[in-house]
């Protein structure tokens, strides 16, 4: 039993029944749940509400990236829904991130954690150059994370490979949420910048986003318990 479960399971399912039957095996003391674009586009806020009603903390992962006014309204809608964490893209810039942080102020301690995606864990350093970014992945992530912190956000999504650098540069209170987690021997799939759960926590990750290594396991519950035991 944990008071602050570190594992955020990515519920990347294409039908609600499968997702709900998967969730019925889980306990809110063992994990939190992440609802992303696939599930949300099909089943929407009612689905998120059901998970919250079952006692789970929900990370609404819609990676908002739009003009400041639109993103501010979207994060306020997420707060109204009662989610625990919501994210935006740091690439939307400081005015967008500040507007999002400002929109959550009226919610006080009921506001969701607001975090910014830096560089997707599916991307390799070489792909930055295609977008005109000539600095290293570490420099790029650190610079976007600094911008997020200066804009009043609670933390960032990054790869665990950048976690120790970010913790030492930005302080231990600034939350690091790390996808691209792969237990030893599991398939990387489309992820590139990966680490094992234990390595990620040792490097400074506060929360681990894990999808397929749990959802596609023969026994998802056993996979979750095994991962929690390594942390
Ligand atoms: O914001 C995210 O959660 C996210 C950011 C990122 O850089 N990389 C990333 O994989 N994710 C999400 O984390 C989950 C990872 O799933 P698996 O690769 O199946 O473990 C997916 O739902 C992604 O949408």
UniProtKB/TrEMBL annotation:
Per its record, what are the GO molecular function terms?
orotidine-5'-phosphate decarboxylase activity
The active site is formed by 61, 63, 66
EC supergroup of this enzyme? lyase
- Identify the EC number(s): 4.1.1.23
Domain of life of the source = Bacteria
Instruction: Tell me yes or no: is Translocase among this UniProt entry's keywords.
Output: no
Instruction: Summarize the subunit comment.
Output: Homodimer.
To which protein family does this belong? Belongs to the OMP decarboxylase family. Type 1 subfamily.
Output this protein's name: Orotidine 5'-phosphate decarboxylase
Lineage here is: Bacteria, Pseudomonadati, Pseudomonadota, Gammaproteobacteria, Alteromonadales
